[in-house]
Amino acid sequence: MDVKIVEHPLAAARLTAMRDERSDSPRFRAALHELTMMLVYEATRDAAVAEYAIRTPVAPAKGYRLGNPPVLVPVLRAGLGMADAAQAMIPDASMGFVGLARDEETHEPYAYMESLPDDLAGRHVIVLDPMVATGGSLLRCCEMIAARGCTDIDLVSVLCAPDGIAKLAGSGIAMRMTTAAVDPELNDKAYIVPGLGDAGDRQFGAYRRF
Ligand code: PRP
Ligand code: URA
């Protein structure tokens, strides 16, 4: 799997704000929004473009737009905080939704929502989820997308653990990952260390130490 780590001072500052336990929910959400814009910008660097003719106030010129606008798929709940930012970067994108929650004991994902176009053949899908820990949730999401015929999947995440990347890479589903960092390990509750805690809780108002 192609893993692109976005190493940029502005991205590092947003990631730091998200990691810092003193950041309240508004600060956490703002940093996630801004960082998502940067990650989506990098994830689409090689996207196909279509050329078309425009006129400037001075002369004819070439114009460009995305050749195949993607389907954005935020993974509820935590991926919701990335949806607006990704759509702001790609206004022509459409959006589907997948709802997954990890069981606290087994760490296995439970799917409670799948709202995707029936046919994703020939479509470019960008999955948005800030955290890849064991990789079980994103793998489940990619299986849903691949089952609808998609062969062009980009994953955009804030933080990954090596276990999660290995699970996705070994799945046999072709995908690319763009992330701000890969942290060293998981703790015994399958939280990323040092990580940033529970991305859903931190956006939507709860704070827990793990
Ligand atoms: C978080 C996160 C990922 C998943 C990552 O969601 O947003 O979807 O955990 O863990 P994994 O790689 O081990 O599967 P969570 O299940 O906590 O649900 P939430 O978004 O509703 O908080
Ligand atoms: N989900 C999160 O939100 N954070 C982690 O570290 C692991 C899973």
TrEMBL record:
EC number(s) recorded for this UniProt protein: 2.4.2.9
Keyword Lipid metabolism part of the UniProt annotation: no
Xref: CDD domains: PRTases_typeI
GO cellular component, one term: cytoplasm
Needed co-factor(s): Mg(2+)
Ion transport as UniProt keyword: no
Coiled coil ranges: none
Pathway connected to this protein: Pyrimidine metabolism; UMP biosynthesis via salvage pathway; UMP from uracil: step 1/1
Keywords: Allosteric enzyme, Glycosyltransferase, GTP-binding, Nucleotide-binding, Transferase
Reaction(s) this enzyme catalyzes, per UniProt: UMP + diphosphate = 5-phospho-alpha-D-ribose 1-diphosphate + uracil
Phosphoribosyltransferase domain location: 6-205
Pfam families associated with the record: UPRTase
Role played: Catalyzes the conversion of uracil and 5-phospho-alpha-D-ribose 1-diphosphate (PRPP) to UMP and diphosphate.
Protein family membership: Belongs to the UPRTase family.
Name this polypeptide is given: Uracil phosphoribosyltransferase
